Amino acid sequence: MELPKYFFEVLKMYEEELKASKVENAPRIINELRTAIFHHAIPEFGYKRTHSGRKMTGDEVDNAQKFLKTLRIGKLLNLRQALQKSFEKNNVSQASRNTYGNRAENFLTWAAQQIWWPGSRTAKLKEQCTPPRRHNHGALADFKLTDRKSIYRKYALTTQETPPTLQAQLNQFNSYLIQPEWPGRIIKAVEKSTAKEYIKNIKLIFGFQYRFQNVPIHELRLETIVPLITEEQLEGLTPLQQKKLWNQHKKNLEQLVCDYFQFLRNFNSSVSPFTRMGKITAILALAKFLYLQQVESDADYRLIPVFSTIDNYCNKILVELDEWRSSRHSVSDWSKRWPDVPVGQTALEFIQEKIVEPLRYECRPRDKRGDFRPSWSIAISYQCYLKWALLSYLPARRQEEYRELKVALSCPIERPQDIPPNGLYQPLPPDNQRERKYNGMVIDNYLYFTYKHDNHYYPQGIWVIDTRKYKTRKTYGKQSIIIQNLNFEDGHCFYDYIERFLYGWWTKEGYKNQLVYDWWQPEMQGRRGRWLSSGRIQFEPKDTCCIPSDNQSAIWTWGYVFVVPRSGMPATGSAFSKIFETISYRLIKKRISPHIMRYVWATWGIQVGLSDPELSSLAYAMGHSVKTLRDMYERSTPVEKRQAIEQAIAQRLFTASEQHEQKLPLNVEVDDLVQIAIRLTQQERQQLIAKLQSTM
What we know:
single chain, 25 helices, 9 strands, elongated
């Protein structure tokens, strides 16, 4: 038998017990118990009545039942206090207190004898046990997103294969891309991640030339991709000869690009224009590097004939990209990435319910048999939950911001004055101790805990992500993201999970506890217990110490919040995505990546009807424009897009009488009408009788 989880389920079980036992006056007992709960108790739990009359209307009874279906059974422990508080507040007579109090007391006495009673040791133990983990969807590798019949085959030129002369050229090209200044360079330096992507694509082309075009490895140069014609080579040639020379090299470049793009389609089934745009952009950056000495402005590049070939490919690919974006076409099967959402629910709500909440339950300390889980296993559960939570509770940002999120591992010797004496202190390092660019700008992201933020004081403190490194930082500047401390029905809050992961998890549960707590939480001081997990330290993170450049500066240490177990380093982009896809596949048989969560949030914003200011705020929180949110990320289905206008048509084109007729239930029984009439107040009954007499 499935155990009850909600208050209403317990109430129905008790009522059925009374009826099955043929208790004398069972209907009256049930009615008085419902009055005690519906009318007196649940308003103390947050339920708000719509009428102030002494008796509840039929709609209020229905709403009260719906409210009880959302209350966890843990509220049974507070039922007595809620009733007493309501009696005092409403000045209830002693006779009514005795009647309703006795009904509630009998109900609680019965409930306390059940195995699921929240106050019992069995129930407490069950609340500490993880739910069974589902693995009935098969292997993730068998759930393919594309039609590619084989795994992706690698062909890039490896570091070991790269000749020293070519490696020297690549190093120089990389420096040209990222250095703050470079002689003769007229374009802006790019981010290291962008330069890394360019180099990766260039080495892929070298691998194609070496492995499939049989170019000897010692002949590979940057010029074998983009032909370089110097001014010295052109001297002494007639204009016609110069044109022939340029045409020959343009033809060679065009042949290389054509062969390579054909190879991508045949060898690895790469048909996406996004892939080809990445390759041609890298070739363009390489061409600008090689012809650096022949230009004085960016416009001068367009006067060099080989650039027209590159531009032609860029323009063709851009047209195809526009077609893909407008039709929402994708290489991967979108149905395997997007959750199957029930009618009336958004994808975000579905993911929170079916993925994030089960992951939170998996953080419990005991296994399904009731034994304490290994510390390592608990730490992994916490890390998985927090990764998903940050992208599900807050507007999803780009995954590198979470992969490279840092946390300080040291603090000033003197405690800041605005920190409570017994309060948690997780500092934000000063700017001069953080990663910075050549111009002094901070380029990293930190998680920290503070009591004062943006001229507001928070007595309980807040966790904040200070974001200084992200793709669109030049447009939107630094962002300070407050993490809300969500309260869960089982009594935990989101900050509990953050702090247990960062600092470890101490409990007084269990036997033979020999350790004595001596950390910052005053309520735990001196109590015996055990460490269930050491948190992220379980993964042996490769934390870093920043040695100051002078004797006056403090020594700061830091580490990444999320690291790969054993390696202690942050995951790569593909590995980070695979963690998300593996979990979502296990729970709902969908491969949802961090990037898909950005689509989920954008779609949610449109579906729930956010106003223009709210939509603008959501786009800002995600780090892009409203136009990008609408054009690129929003993924409402055709049915969902038509829903708003269909509702408007139904409300504004049909007459009130037609709408009323559509809402009338069919085959209404007399007994049903009697039950509805019983729930009416005296005044409502008189109005009903008068209405019936006037229509006869």
